[in-house]
Design brief:
The protein has helices spanning 3-11, 17-22, 45-52, 63-71, 78-81, 87-93, 258-261; strands at residues 27-29, 97-105, 108-117, 121-130, 143-148, 151-152, 157-166, 169-177, 187-195, 203-211, 218-220, 224-227, 234-243, 246-254, 269-274, 279-280, 286-289, 297-302, 311-319, 325-327, 333-336. The chain is built from seven helices and 21 strands. The protein has two domains: 3-211, bacillus anthracis domain (Immunoglobulin-like), CATH 2.60.40; 218-336, Immunoglobulin-like, CATH 2.60.40.1640. 14% of the residues lie in helices and 40% in strands. The chain crosses the membrane at residues 44-65. Residues 41-126 form the DUF4179 domain. It comes from Lysinibacillus zambalensis. Pfam families: DUF4179, DUF5643.
């Protein structure tokens, strides 16, 4: 995508910028986070869009959705408004688990409504209600986070989106793609933590167990590789996993050792095309790096699929010196879906 087209695509997306400015945690990507330099995670929605063209967690709730929330205990349809990559599947197959646990402090109540976990991704939906009005433009900005088995989540991809349903109700959507499939096992202990949120003082915590969604999981190990002519970059498709909440492609990217040393390792953007010429990019594709791997382990997340394609074609690109997106034809890679274990 060239610069003009990219700018037009941003202009066409209905994103309330003031709401995004009100909280720093609208989109959190584990992009180029490295232990030795402690690089700050990218948090701007526009930066995140520039990296992945995904706008994770940037959806906002319609009037109809607000009415639905007031009338039913389940909020599965919310995922379309938050543009979750699995929204259609979540709603059609009712994949979420009802939690409805809450904690209150000084007039603010935090209720975990529902959650879903499939070994590759975790989704948690939270509703905040206050005795007085809630504000996403606090003078003193509070913070919240999620832990799994008592430890903060360090995902390959993650985001948090918020919107106000009315003056006293805010809904929040968390989603994570883990660095490795099934790294947490069949059942996990989740805790949602909050402190000094929306103008209220005090700490909140809701914890609950969550089992993996029952459903078929298919794993394929194509182990196909391509490299640039000068052999500077090598791209290998290690594994493709089809699970209830996503289609996941794990990649290895090899590059010269000195790029580790001077912190110049590459970030490639991707589009993916299946054998039926369905294109996955922008809001249909998320991308991130496994933590602590210096960009060697990249994760692509596509929507979940009922029908497994025969192949994917990966089309990597990068931003050139002039700031334009440029395809890397040498690294284009056909990934057959036929070698399972």
């Amino acid at each position: 995508m060239n610069k003009d087209n990219f700018n037009r695509s941003i202009d066409n997306i209905n994103v309330p910028v003031e709401k995004l400015k009100a909280r720093e945690k609208t989109a959190i990507f584990q992009a180029k986070k490295k232990r030795k330099v402690g690089r700050t995670t990218k948090q701007s929605i526009l930066v995140a869009c520039g990296l992945c063209i995904s706008l994770l967690g940037s959806g906002f709730v319609s009037t109809g959705m607000a009415e639905a929330l007031s009338n039913i205990p389940l909020i599965g349809p919310i995922y379309k408004d938050f543009r979750d990559i699995a929204s259609d599947k979540i709603e059609h197959d009712q994949l979420t688990t009802v939690i409805d646990k809450q904690d209150s402090k000084n007039g603010l109540t935090m209720t975990v409504k529902e959650a879903a976990y499939d070994g590759s991704r975790l989704i948690v939906t939270v509703v905040y209600t206050g005795e007085k009005e809630l504000s996403m433009e606090e003078e003193i900005v509070g913070f919240n986070y999620i832990t799994i088995n008592g430890q903060p989540v360090k995902p390959a991809i993650g985001s948090t989106g918020q919107d106000d349903i009315n003056s006293k109700t805010i809904i929040e959507h968390h989603q994570f793609t883990f660095s490795n499939y099934n790294e947490y096992g069949e059942e996990i202990e989740i805790a949602v933590h909050g402190e000094d949120l929306f103008g209220y003082e005090g700490k909140l915590k809701v914890s609950f167990p969550l089992k993996k969604i029952k459903g078929d999981v298919f794993e394929y190990y194509p182990e196909v590789t391509t490299k640039t002519v000068d052999e500077v970059y090598t791209l290998t498709a290690d594994k493709v996993t089809f699970s209830p909440l996503s289609t996941r492609i794990d990649l290895t990217i090899d590059y010269p050792t000195e790029m580790d040393e001077n912190d110049s390792w590459p970030w490639f953007d991707f589009s993916v095309v299946d054998d039926n010429v369905h294109v996955y990019d922008k809001l249909k594709l998320q991308a991130g790096m496994a933590v602590g791997n210096y960009g060697h382990h990249m994760v692509l997340t596509l929507p979940p699929m009922d029908t497994i394609p025969k192949s994917f074609t990966l089309k990597p690109s990068h931003t050139n010196n002039e700031g334009f997106s440029e395809e890397i034809k040498e690294l284009e890679l056909v990934v057959p879906i036929n070698k399972s274990k």
